[in-house]
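Fold these two proteins, one after the other.
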Amino acid sequence: MNRENGKVVFQLLGPVSAHLNHQPVMPNAPKQRQILVLLALNAGRVVTTQTLVEELWGDQPPRSFATTLQTYIFQLRAKLATAARDRDWARRLLGTRHSGYQLDGQLCETDVAEFDNLARAGRRAVDSGDPKGSSELLGCALALWRGPALVDVPVGRILRAEVGSLEENRIGVLERRIEADIDLGRHADLLGELTMLVAKHPMHENFYALLMIAYYRSGRAGNALEAFRQIRAVLRDELGVEPGPRLQRLHQAILAGALDFEPVWLAS
């Protein structure tokens, strides 16, 4: 048995890749890529056969789906065993369970898990009153993204939901990093980034709130009020609703010149 194998390193936040002992092990075949990526996103947890079948074929699996899935798993193990030079190690890495399959969480690492760890550390820094540490940690988390998650993998129903969840987490971390930068007084430096974000997410109230704050604290109250008018017009035209209470309070604070005294943008 080869005892010198390290971990399989997965990069999923952008174009996908997987390496073991400096050798690429991400397959080229689309369905095998789907399987390995779904297992990597759930490393340490069993992914049921039913879930894999739903991801690969939706509501119309072939009659031979069980045999076909087993063949895909056999081919994945063979590729891993070649890189590891150890069949037993490959079977330990990609294990068969009663209800499905599982990647051993101790034998692989993913940029998704690293992102989550950095995001949690960044939130802890916020809670402890350390905006500088929070900004740095959250910035490191965001730097792991090299493009849209799983950008070169065909996605079925399950992976599509995973991609949506990853993107929501990225947006949440981005919001917190900008909030930390605002706490550090970096208002003018944020204007370009926030202007781009509201253009990309025209109904995202939190990004508009952050842009309004950055404008106001950069001495541009008129631009802050114009930003409110923009989001209000979009919400009225697209959804027939007014901005939410937090954005309304922020607008009133800017009109009253009171934003410097009450951080209403953080109020629930």
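Now the second one:
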Amino acid sequence: MENNKLQQDHHKVSAKEQSEEVQYITGRGAQFNTKNRFLKDEKTQEHIEGIDDWEASNIPTQYIEQQSKTIVNKVESKDVGMGYSMNPYAGCEHGCIYCYARNVHEYWGYSAGLDFEQKIIIKKNAPQLLRKFLMHPKWDATPIMLSGNTDCYQPAEQKYRLTRGLLEVCNEFNQPVGILTKNSWILKDKDVLQEMAKKGIVSAMVSITSFNEDLRRSMEPRTTTAKQKLKVINELSSAGVRMGIMMGPMIP
């Protein structure tokens, strides 16, 4: 019992106390907006210690709706194990500070910092675009990764249900799809996932970074807890869905 207590204490991490001069924005991974490399005429505040009047505002998340032209993207990079991906949302409210997709937000004219998690682009016509894509006579049903860039089950999904729409189209066309998420909202789609699982056309990975809650909240403040993620894996796996764990980044 004593040995277990020591092990638990060894892995316990507490967030650093913030000085009175610096106001920490809770619930956000980034604390300011970094410069957009594509914008020449832009002013940014990147060094808190060098500014006398620093005012960081925790503004509500903005959903920016748009009609997109495409939804399925061919992945050219050899560093990731996917051929095609689709992302119904650009930007991600989860706010993971380590997210590799942050820099992509600069393409839309925003910052990879706070803008990435505060200004979410909603591709409202995503299911319709996918249907059109799958109807192309030369498409060979190559597996498509859902959430290859940003999480398809981030909080915006609660309102827009675009991921649900994409899954329904995939189920209709028998299109194989993989899912990566760190949110328990995937359980809302258990019914369609079960149908797809019976056909062998779906698999899902749940991203787990750390079982230490202090550390998780610092790195990915708006994701679900690690214990809840295990419950998601257990419930969907029991329902017949092929499940897995994505471990990354690896934290010492």
